[in-house]
DNA sequence: GATGAATGAGTATTCATTCAT
DNA sequence: TATGAATGAATACTCATTCAT
């Protein structure tokens, strides 16, 4: 069975797509001693932001957890906002890299989508709390702005999302070209698929078997729920 | 054509589903003189909350627009949070009523779903700004809480959403029973459909012809994008 | 003797120039009950600013002395800077009015200057502490700005000083026209006279007899220290 | 003409008063290699303090300009305050020496004053920015202290000013004794003259021809503006 | 019922100084 | 000597809510 053949494996640095091994590097992987405090702060920030959200997370709480002085935070990060952004960037970069790798393989479009959905589910499940916070802040898109983030920063995040969803869209287009997907508005479909993934994660509807959930989502998108 | 037969019409108080007219009442519809101030406040609050979000909307701005005193707000509403809730409740009640009415009709499940999707799209499009704000605040679900809302209040909102999505789920179940929809996790599917609707609205992917968009969404859900 | 004829009297509201009585009004003179807190804050601010300077004066200290809440300060004044400005404005307005009145009288230029110098000495002696603070902040004139004040606010203050010194200049010009003062750069002379007045006050070189000091300063300016 | 005979010349190390050449030494003039960093820091500090004032000048900015490490600053100077003081002291010492030399010459008092006024004007014009900053900080004299300087440090500066102005006072007294200046409060007159000099410099009222301005100031002080 | 003056809790950021290497 | 990572004290301002009139 093709489906079962996809015994892929995912961790922070390597991902197997069948026999194809995709390796990706992480920024700041090597923590020199001088980067010690920086890492402590990032880890503490991850915890506090995840728990409290951006606005209600206080720098005081972060430094208490990081066991560092307040000034140290500002030696490494220009402000609270950029500290949060660093957290997001460092985590999403390898994720975006994998998605991009998958999109570039020669796999059939349906298999690509299935693989990508799985990566999405896995990544958002792993980082649910922090991404929930991020999306919370990004809801202000287009409105006069009720986010805690600056306009420029928001735009950066939005662009990351657009790029990521764009990867899905390209594969859908590929499917149409190859005749395995019917003519449709690929932008809408990509956003639709993305929204379902996010909803499954945030509503805790992803089972322990991520692959099964990915297959189900993909299946509904391809074949519908109709009999 | 059955589809084209669905020339439904929607306004604040009446909705036509083909020939069936569904009438629903609104709370506080009759503004006695003494309810005058209350209405002015609600209307001003709608504008300010929609524009600024919950956190950044100030009571000062609301009373300036409502042309009333600050104390008056607290005569009618226990606090800013409950003022917001009242706004949501008054607007969603008729909407939920219509959905409920549709669910109760004897229409085939697929037609029900299609009609419901259309009502969803129409309602969220009409109230996009305020509901964006609401959903912004509800992202905190489950976490220690980074919402501006109290736990209790959040639960109330969540319950409304669950009930509404539950209506979709029931119809999916109906479809399975009637053999027009294949076996699936109706809860997941209902949430999936809901998430797509919301995403389309908030990403401005709903065209001028709401019915067409509703049909497209429904179509993908039933028949998939596969060839 | 003309000099001794100048038995002028100065208090907050009335000034006698020989037989001529000059009356001037003060803003906010009538403290209604509702202006009570405002006055308390202004009085406390006067004390704290005089004692600590602008930068080192804290709002906390002001409210402690005014026996009021922090928010109340911000109900009456947009910020600390504008609170300070209000203090200066309310005090300098009557002072500037008197100077202006003197400049408009038909007195001989030398007598005008003498009278004005006296008013200057009296006013700056009465308000030495606060004006020392003001001038402290204004020293940044022209430089990239090391004042605590905003550019706009600084310009307002500077303009007040320029206008005031301008009154002296006009009288000097008058004296030249009338042939009692020799041709000279009236701008420089006016600034020179002003600087001497300020220096006398801030170095505590003004004796108890303000009139005598005024006469001495005027005398040196008119006749020099030469034998 | 005696006046025109005073073709004095002023630079950092030598000053000519007519035929009399006054030479003065500078501290730390010889920069050994080990004094290299110290000089770099002083020069950078001069620039930054002049531009930003004492409070807004940061050690970070100074070390960036001096191309040195932060700790190095504290190897040579106990703190920011003493760094500033060193700057002032090194620059004012030769200036005070010249004034002192002039005061000691056998010139007539009026000529001495005229020469001293010129030196004052020249020196403060050359160092306007830094001295503006110094005087900015010294305004706190006598008050609880709103200066960035410590009480002790302020007293040191004040003493320098007092000593310098004292030189003027001595010459005035000399003039009185010699009968060329009328009886007057020499302390007040010296401070008055000093204040005029400073005001002229800071208000940019000193023309290109410093000597002419010096003559004009002296002239007004001796003969008055009266006709 | 309507009003609005009074209140105070809550928080990000800067920068001089230290001290281990 | 030279360095620079780590530190923490210090402070203005907003805005929902109350309550006396």
From TrEMBL, chains A, B, C, D:
Record keywords: DNA-binding
Signal sequence coordinates: none
Annotation: DNA-binding region: 58-77
One of the protein's GO biological processes: regulation of DNA-templated transcription
Pfam families named among the record's database cross-references: TetR_C_24, TetR_N
Presence of keyword Translocase: no
Bilayer-crossing regions: none
Top-level taxon of origin: Bacteria
Single annotated GO MF: DNA binding
Domain annotation HTH tetR-type: ranges: 35-95
Record bears the keyword Methyltransferase: no
PANTHER family cross-referenced by the UniProt entry: HTH-TYPE TRANSCRIPTIONAL REPRESSOR SCO4008 (PTHR30328:SF54), TRANSCRIPTIONAL REPRESSOR (PTHR30328)
Name of the protein this chain belongs to: Transcriptional regulator, TetR family
């Amino acid at each position: 069975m093709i489906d079962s053949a996809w015994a892929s494996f995912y961790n922070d640095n390597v991902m197997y797509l069948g026999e194809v091994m995709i390796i990706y590097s992480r920024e700041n992987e090597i923590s020199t001693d001088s980067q010690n405090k920086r890492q402590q702060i990032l880890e503490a920030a991850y915890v506090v932001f995840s728990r409290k959200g951006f606005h209600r997370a206080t720098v005081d709480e972060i430094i208490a957890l990081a066991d560092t002085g307040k000034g140290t935070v500002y030696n490494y990060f220009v402000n609270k906002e950029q500290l949060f952004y660093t957290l997001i960037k460092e985590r999403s970069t390898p994720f975006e890299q994998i998605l991009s790798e998958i999109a570039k393989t020669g796999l059939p479009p349906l298999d690509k989508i299935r693989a990508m959905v799985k990566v999405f589910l896995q990544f958002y499940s792993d980082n649910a709390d922090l991404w929930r916070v991020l999306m919370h802040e990004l809801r202000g898109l287009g409105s006069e702005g009720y986010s805690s983030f600056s306009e420029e920063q928001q735009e950066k995040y939005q662009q990351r999302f657009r790029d990521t969803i764009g990867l899905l869209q390209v594969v859908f287009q590929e499917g149409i070209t190859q005749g395995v997907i019917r003519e449709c508005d690929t932008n809408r479909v990509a956003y639709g698929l993305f929204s379902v993934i996010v909803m499954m994660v945030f509503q805790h509807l992803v089972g322990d078997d991520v692959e099964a959930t990915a297959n189900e989502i993909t299946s509904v998108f391809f074949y519908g729920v109709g009999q």
